[in-house]
UniProtKB/TrEMBL annotation:
It is a lipid-anchor; GPI-anchor. This is Aminopeptidase N. Belongs to the peptidase M1 family. Residues 53-245, 1051-1217 form the Aminopeptidase N-like N-terminal domain. It comes from Spodoptera exigua (Beet armyworm). SUPFAM superfamilies: Leukotriene A4 hydrolase N-terminal domain (SSF63737), Metalloproteases ('zincins'), catalytic domain (SSF55486). InterPro entries: Aminopeptidase_N-like_N (IPR045357), Aminopeptidase_N-like_N_sf (IPR042097), ERAP1-like_C_dom (IPR024571), M1_APN-typ (IPR034016), Peptidase_M1 (IPR001930), Peptidase_M1_aminopeptidases (IPR050344), Peptidase_M1_dom (IPR014782), Peptidase_M4/M1_CTD_sf (IPR027268). Residues 861-916 have a biased composition (Low complexity).
Amino acid sequence: MESANRWFSLILGVIVLQSVLAFGPIDVTDAEWIEYMNLMSNSNYRLGTETEPINYKVKLTPNLVSFTFEGEVIIQVRVTSQNPVNEIILHCNSLTISSVSVTLPSQTQNLATGNTFQCEDGTDFLRIPTSIQLTSNIEYVVVTMSFTGVLTNTMRGFYRSWYYDSTMQKRWMATTQFQPGHARQAFPCYDEPRFKATFDITLVRDNNAQSKPSISNMPIKDTDSTVTGKIAETFYTTPKMSTYLLAFIVSDYIPVAVGTTPQRPFTIYARDNIKDTGKYSLEVGEKLLNLMEEYTAFPYYGMDDHMEMKQAAIPDFSAGAMENWGLLTYSLFIFDNIVGALCEAHQKSSSSQKVTYMFYAEPEMGFPTRFIVEQLQVSLLSDSFASAHPLTNPDVSDKDSVRAHFSTITYAKGASILRMTQHLLGEETYQKGLQAYLKDRKYNTAEPEDLFRNLDANAGNSLASYEGMTISRYFKSWSEKAGHPLLTVNIDHASGRMTVGQHQFDINNGVSSNNGLWDIPLTWTRAGAPDFNNLKPSEFLSGPLKIIDRFYRVNYDQATWTLITQALRSNNRAVIHEYNRAQYAPWIAAITGYNFALRRLAHDNIALQSLKDIIFASSTAVVQRLGFIEGTNGNFMDDLLRMHVMTFLCNAGHEQCSNVATQRFQAWRQNGDRIPPNMRPWVYCGGLRNGNEADFDFFWRRYLDENLSNEKVVMLGAAGCTGNTVALHKFLDVIVSTPSINEDEDIRPQDYSAAISSAVTSNEANTMKVIEWLMNHPQHLDTANGISLLSTATSRLLTQSDILRVETWLNTATQLKAEAIQAARAGIATSTANIQWYQRRQHEFKAYFDTGYFEEGFEVPPSSSTTTEATPSTPEDTPSTPEDTPSTPGDTTSDATITDEPGPSSTEPTTTAEPGSANIASLSFFTLIITVIINMGQSHIVIDTLPETDEEDEISGTKMLVPALFCVLLGFAVAIPPEDFRSNLEFFDYSSNVAEPAYRLVNNVYPTDVKVNLDNINLEEARFTGSVEMIVISITKTITKQLASRSKMFKTNVRENDLHQISMHQNNLIITRISVVNNTNGENVQMRSPSPFTQDSYYELLHLHFALPLVAGSYTINIDYTGTINRNPLDRGFYRGYYYYENTLRYYATTQFQPYHARKAFPCFDEPQFKSRYTISITRPRTLGPSYSNMAISSTEDLGNSIRETFYPTPIISAYLVAFHVSDFVPTTVTTTNRRPFSIISRQGVTEQHSYAAEIGVEITNQLDDYLGIEYHEMGQGQIMKNDHIALPDFPSGAMENWGMVNYREAYLLYDPANTNLINKIFIATIMAHELGHKWFGNLVTCFWWSNLWLNESFASYFEYFAAHWADPHLELADQFVVDYVHSALNADASPSATPMNWTNVEDNPTITAHFSTTSYAKGASVLRMLEHLVGARNFRNALRHYLKDNAYGIGTPVLMYRAFEKAIAEDYAFQRDFPEADIGAVFDSWVQNRGSPVVMVNRTASTGGIVVTQRRYQLSGTIPDQMWQIPLSWTEQRHLDFSSTKPKAILSTPSAPYPSEAGDNFVIFNIQQSGLYRVNYDDDNWKAIASYLNSNNRERIHKLNRAQIVNDVLHFIRSEDIDKTLGFEVLDFLRSETDYYVWNGALTQLEWIRRRFEHSPRAHAAFTSYLCGLMNNVINHLGYDERPNDSTSTILNRIQILNFACNIGHSGCISNSLEKWNNFKENNVAVPVNLRRHVYCTGLREGDRSDYDLLFNTYNSSQNTADMVVMLRALACTKDQEALTHYLQQSMHSDLIRIHDRTNAFSFALQGNLENVQFVIRFLQSNYITIRNTMEIYGGEARLNICINAVAAFLNTFEAITERWMYDSQIGLGGSFNVAVGVVNSAMANLEWGANTSLEIFNFVSTRGASSAIFASSFLILAAMLIQLLR
């Protein structure tokens, strides 16, 4: 009983996480969960609380011939709203409503209005308007409805299922599954858990000899057979409950087991051929119910007078089980003596979960033991990843986060923590606390604090020995943070002193960088007096840890691990508890690990056999003890263990096991000998594996004849074991077949996944057979099961040749659907990762197979008879090796030391124990599983971070590596398949935390010189051939951190010669030949045969395999290949573009290699750290002009029809900077100086547009030469660097900094004064400056890896503005930097998901791409500007010069940049004097490493003048993390306003600091000229003083950039609710007088954002628009509508932004003037001034008709200036004419005059141009998304579809738009874009929510600032209506 009670105490494992009345998870599709959670998590999809149900009377008549049903429902509805309502809203789905009436009690008048009533798509609402207003003083109203519905086969709602009865007649049944939201499919109802009511159910069924009584939650009360052939059965009224708990079954089911206690009715229902097999279920069920009542002190049968317990087994059931009150339904639960131990365990756990939401245990079934593996270890794995979530997660707020929270962590981790709590409090105390909690919260919901409070209140003296500890404190430390701790234990074995420290565990790195601390109850034991029974913790965070009985991991020091291993090898190993030996019965844990290894060694026959030898030797003892044959009086745990062990051994090829299986199978087939249930899984499988087609046919007939669903599942699991190909094909045919409604399904829908897994995984030899079958039957890949087969099979490929074969098929099988190809490629990626896993560890496996295990370097402490003196450790002692204390930078380690008296040491263990005992050591490895991963990680850390490492150190750092290879196995799997866990019976496979493997190359080989030859370039057919000759240096085991120069780059400190392969990148190349030459002796290197090389398409790698290990040295690699010129520029790499010249189509080919696309043109080391010299040779058609590359042409060879051009070698560069170009383009060379060449190159016909770019480009180059002290043209390392800039009609990026050959989009390089506006002219200057800046930052010194991209892009972005400003100060770019880059950086950083400049998560292609973001560009540049103001202009320049000089032609790291700044300021006495405590590296690093940007909160006390400055991270939403920056602070005071000096007065390096100022009325303004990257918020008094000053005539005394800062900050604070909204708008009121460009630029975007939030409420939107127009009147009058000759740059820019904004929001003056200019253009051909075109063109089309559209479209088609074409393309979207808009959108998809990079922009333009067109544009997307997604070359594929869908988010501003269902209905067609669509809906709903929450304050303010009095007077009425709509 004690054991049972302990186990029962885990009841709260689910209760606490879901509460007594919350709905549990069930197995539903992703689409359904998204749909349902969309309804449940958004208030607009939730029912309002104006009415609620009291009672339902439901009558349903199912027709099991037509599979329809008729229904009536009468609902008593109470009005709960204090305000009258005239509409009743409830749920219905897929029902046809035939009649509706609403009546008052005792009245007959129908109050419902309307003739038709429908279930709304999207919301599932049924709206019933009433003719009178209903009020709360009415007792209730009666809603009566009649309806019809369909009995579907979806296993949801009211659905149909079938079975065969005892006469083999096929029987249909109707049953239900309503959780989470499917009761609405059976009858109209309030289908949310919060709406509880009572139910009176009547079911009408056929009245014939075969029919049996219906079943529902309650017993039958009355029957009525007055209707001929029918009988109506009415059930007793249910307790008050939610609709999802309702259930009923109409079938021929009979009771198969009935309880014997009338007062406690308990009945098992099933089909009649089950007969007595329900007895065991009844027995266990009654026992469970009794025990749970006893344990909880809460009687089940006391919940209602007519409460019964019924359980029914359903043939087709989507969930494992369902907890309907009074009627539990199951898919698997019938048990008798032919089912077996595993099913018995399943049944008990499944039954108990539905009865109690908990698990059941009997001692003989070993549940307490199995809990360790099946719950605790599983949760440890899931909780080890960065994606893990806390148990109590405040971020669970939407459908995705809710769904993700139904996870292993929520189930298994929660249960594990509760188990730990039970041991902490003691059983009795724990049980009292739970009972108090249930009594306190019965029939209600609960919060975690409710549980903690009740446990604390009943704790008594249980916590007395733990000073200050409470359950609330302890539990919160575990429930409110993700992850779990790792305890590091170090022991001085001479003195007995032990040290324990905690860190957060991370599966990828060992120790997480998160600083997590837990209150950890510790238990331990020791060898001298082992005690594994006392589970009461001794300390909190204060003692050594040995026993794995808490939710944490343990890592011991090296010596202790060795002692534990020795103990496990000894005859006394049983002294160590079995939990601690293997964290479950040792063999169950070992099987999981061994299976992991067997899969990864399967392609290496020698290693595989070595592993099997170990396995079979290890199994000797367990096989001898258990035997193969099950006895009659077997122990349950032994039977279970035998089943697992023999299944494993037979699968592994154990000869004796296979023989027994075959013999028993044949005896069954030939003689009918019964196979015991627990032997069936491995006997079936072994018999089929060794059998023939006839054996399979016999087996399958028995499967079809089998009635027990459990047995059928076992047989399905074995069917795939067949070794006969014909039999396998038969099995596959069944899996993919689609029977009609009248045909039987050989495999039930819920069993398909088991069948698919069986077909692929049960026999290793079948993997390729399955794939070959699919290759020959591709039609099956149109089905979901076919795709699942393909996905599973491709994930289990064993060799690269198999992978290549499948890849070749995928590339040629054009008929395959994208879903099938995507699934196959994902599977191939898994297979590739498995192969690579073994390749990385091959030599370690070999060493283990040779030696068994390591004990080097450690001596066993002497025994007590030979003790030696030892110096005891002290608390100050620190571990001496990295193994002792795993740590990473930023870790917080909590250490404690405890002295334990030394006990007698064990004698040295013998190595010759009983059979198999020596190999128990292999099992001990599984005890050390995840722990030793840390040792592996640490050895990597040592290698990567130490400047040099001695050989001995390196070996000691990896001592644990080899045994760790076995230990790691359990970290990736669990002993029992996931579907076997009780917590997963209702919720399968919703959580996966397994991260993608790394994409990085190993830095043991570096290229030094690369020659790339491109031949046979055919632009029409888009193909070429190529060859690469590269010299590489092999530097195996070399540690080199500083690659500053060529001599430093390759330090050949060789440790060992074990390089068996060289890996480099390739993508979509066909390799035809590879040879390798040893440059030392000139001999060819022997390649492996067969397969001298393999290609990995997923990771885009080429592996060269050698017959013998390479000796470190120099080698030449020659590779011949063929390649494809990509037809779509968006694919990047070597791609083709086009243009028209003189009406002739011309092609060109060019490159875009950044960041990882050089591999598409030639095999290479395609990472930035691998730098080398490249010599390019191009053979082009004679018809084309000279080709271009990074360097000038060195030689030309005439080959007849073609020309070969070879270029000079490049400087040392990364592969992504290589570039070449083949075309008939023409250059304009603007300099005659041979040593400083500069050219603009473009297509023919536009050369007159070269001049501006040439002029500004030369000047920028000169400015950068002077500033940085290194001349650009001298960077060629012996050759003059040319300076070519090429304008491309098609280019996927804005521009690309290739050294010597920069590529641009035409719009960003070509300038036509008549057609290029000032904005685009500035683009030309700034983008050229950006790309030229890269020549120093990125090209000359390159970031080591893309995680440090800011070292390239931030500096280029800085010079983008400032170098262009030096070249042309009239452009005002130094000031524009603030509103363009500082503001955009702060805006991006306001997101909770903002990334740091140094983003360590950059590890694969998607994250690389993501890091090319605002963070790396604008934020980094803003940080540099801030540093320049801090250190001074001269120090800043000198620091950059130091960095470039010290690292030229090498790689850069943040540390090298910091050192350069430290070096520069060390030369400046003034800086050291002003900032004596400053650590410039630390200042810099705080901005590089932190996510987001800070807000500085300034509080000033007027009476004293004191200022207190506090910092925190600024976010618009979400939980704000604790972060700290070192912030340079500058400020000025009202009495001495001075905005000229931006030098900081202080560096804020603490969370808060005081600063002095003058007392009195004296406001302060921080961040002068917004020189720092931070926002500033003030106390209200300071804000009011600033507002008053800004609204005075002194406004302009505050610098324009600070006025811009104030506006931008205030508008963000309004959005984030960090300022009172009325106060905020009072500050902004000065805009009425403001005329400056920079100030308005800081305001317009945010004002428009707020305005858009009101679009769902037209009158509020109109009021705010009117307010904005009033703000703008003065600036419009100041600027005028026409340009003036002396306008400055900022004036012109201001006019552009103001008039465009004014016309868009409907400013009458702007519209009138624009129409005047448009009509003059239309009627008189008077050109619109270039800087006014955007708003004039748009207004002309918005107010015009089709003829206006046609005029502008024809102008677009004839234009030769790309920038002007983009302006027109944007304006064309403003048309209101539907035919014109259709034409525009069709042209955006198919016209070759609209470039592919503009096509998606065209879609966005269509949304932006005219809000009236939004629904039309969305419908167009709905009709064409498949074309967009599947037409990569024309439109851009899924990536572009994602952009189109994302563009919709900002324009879904009404409920009607958001509730469009097509995205949900089109989930399959949308593919990966569906998730984007879901995000769009979420974003749109968040926008509406913000508008609802903030509208009142803003509306009140703007109503008093110029809006009409009528609007103001009715503001509250408008807002009330608006908010009601929002809440609905």
